[in-house]
Amino acid sequence: MVRTIHMQEFDPVEGSGMFEDRGTQFYVNINTGIVTILPKTSSLAPY
Question: Kind of pairing, strands 16-21 and 6-11?
């Protein structure tokens, strides 16, 4: 199965980015390996 993940924002300096997959937004930090899934009901991103 091929899944398309849409990249919304990416900061190459911090190695972090905001992605969207099937309506679910999540925040990825490549440097630390931390993935934060943002709840669909919340419009505020918990950074």
Answer: antiparallel
User: pTM of the prediction?
Assistant: 0.55
Q: Tens of pLDDT along 9-18?
A: 888 888 899 8
For residues 5 and 18, the answer to whether their CB atoms sit within 8 Å is no
SS (H, E, C) 1-47: CCCCCEEEEEECCCCEEEEEECCEEEEEECCCCEEEEECCCCCCCCC
CA dist list (Å): 13 to 10, 16, 24, 30, 34: 9, 8, 24, 10, 16
